[in-house]
Write a structure and sequence with these properties.
By secondary structure, the protein is mainly α. The protein has one domain: Fic-like fold (Orthogonal Bundle). It has 12 helices and no strands. It has helices spanning 4-7, 19-37, 45-61, 78-90, 94-99, 101-112, 134-148, 153-167, 174-188, 199-205, 207-218, 222-249. It is globular, with a radius of gyration of 17 Å.
Length: 251
């Protein structure tokens, strides 16, 4: 069913059961991202490199080959091609994401799944024959959270990421869309205003744990949600370190 917090986002959202553990993870992520935000990137070269690395890692998490074909003149894998298109569009979507996230999700899916789904399916959440209101209701609640949630930025990033990956609203390219939405949340909430963190790479380095964390989140229990938020915070901290190392390489 997804996060119990999300179901009450318009009422009185509950804090996790293990508040100390979650808040320690949140503060650690904030601190790591804050240090990364002081890195200098006057020409935007690091941010551009980060964008492409994030796209490759996200595509790899969805099954695309991580190693590129050196003889190819263009990106031929449809998942990776979609991730690259999405990465190129994120910069122009930050403002819209803050006020109209469902509009952005439709656009991201159109870009991510252009080579994977029929044209009449692009940007349109699929229907569930048994629960026709399930995805529309969860998407509405998620949009509400993005627009006005009072929760700390790392928590919102985690819930956006977990909801979209486990809900799979489109039925194609949901992983790429969900990780891009998490990145947009990270940027729009000021957590990564320099756009230099690489949590996608951190998740890729521990793929089995990533998948088990999502499974725990999908169970809908508070413990699974707590664990996912902590896991996402750890990926943010490690992603900040990845971005810092990349920034150092460009000096």
């Amino acid at each position: 069913m997804g996060a119990p917090w999300l179901e009450r986002v318009t009422d009185s959202p509950a804090w996790p059961n293990d508040e100390v553990r979650v808040m320690e993870a949140v503060e650690s992520a904030r601190s790591a991202m804050g240090r990364l935000g002081r890195a200098r990137d006057p020409m935007g070269r690091v941010a551009a490199a980060v964008s492409m690395r994030a796209a490759r890692a996200s595509a790899a998490l969805s099954g695309a080959p991580l190693v590129l074909d050196p003889g190819a003149s263009s990106v031929t894998d449809p998942v990776l091609a979609g991730a690259v298109r999405v990465a190129a569009a994120l910069g122009g979507a930050v403002g819209t994401w803050r006020r109209a996230p469902r509009q952005v999700l439709a656009r991201l899916h159109t870009l991510a799944a252009a080579d994977l789904a029929a044209s009449d399916e692009l940007g349109r959440p699929r229907l569930d024959a048994e629960r026709p209101d399930l995805r529309s209701g969860r998407l509405a609640a998620l949009s509400e959270l993005v627009v006005r949630s009072p929760w700390p930025a790392p928590v919102v990033v985690a819930i956006v990421h977990g909801e979209l990956l486990t809900m799979a609203p489109f039925g194609s390219a949901d992983g790429v869309v969900g990780r891009a939405a998490a990145r947009l949340t990270m940027i729009s909430r000021g957590l990564d205003h320099a756009e230099m963190a690489l949590p996608e790479v951190a998740h890729l380095r521990s793929t089995a744990q990533y998948r088990s964390g999502l499974d725990g989140y999908a169970g809908g229990g508070a413990a699974g949600v707590d664990s996912w938020v902590v896991q996402e915070c750890l990926a943010l901290s490690r992603g900040a370190a990845e971005g810092s190392a990349l920034a150092a390489a460009y000096r």
